[in-house]
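DM between two lab members

TW: hey, do you still have the DUF1468 domain-containing protein entry open?
JB: yeah, one sec
JB: this one, 161 aa:
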Amino acid sequence: MVVRRKGEVLFLSVLMGMAGYLFYLTFSLSPSWYQPVGAADYSRFIFVLLEIVCGLRMFKIFRQAKFNEKSTLDNKIEIKRIRNCVLLTMLVIFIYLIGLTSLGYFISTFLFLVICMWILSYYSLKIIPKAILISIILVALLYILFGQILNIYFPPRVLLF
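TW: and the structure you got?
JB:
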C-alpha cells in the first residue's frame, strides 16, 4: 500500500496531535463561580470534532491507497478549477465586506450569496434562477429572525436597502 499523499497525512497527523494536546490542556481550566458548564467545554467539543474530521479524512486516504482508487484531486484540471474558485471566492468576500457599508447588509448579502452559488456551480448559468430564489429566501429569513423576532438592529452605517 503506497500512500500518494504523504504531505496530507503528515499535516493531518500534526493537526490531530495538536488538537489532542490542546484537549489535554483544557482540563487545567477551572469553571468560574457563575458558569455551570465551564469555559473549556466548548473547546473540548471543537477539539473532539476536529479529531473526528481529521480521522475520517485519513481513513479515506488510506482506503484510496489500499484499493488504488484515483482521487478527483489527482486530476490537474480539477485542481486548477478549484484554485480558481477559491481565489474568486476570496475576491467576492473582500468586495462583500466593502459593499456592506455602501450597499447595505441585505443587498450585499443577496448579491454575495448569488455570486458564491454561481462560482461553486463552476460558472453554470442554470443555477442562477435557483440561486436568486434561495438568496431571497435566506435574506428574508435573516431579516425576520434578527429584525422582527430578536429585535437586533444594524448600526446606522449599515443600511437596510
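TW: got it. The chain has two domains: 6-74, 76-149. The chain has a mean pLDDT of 80.
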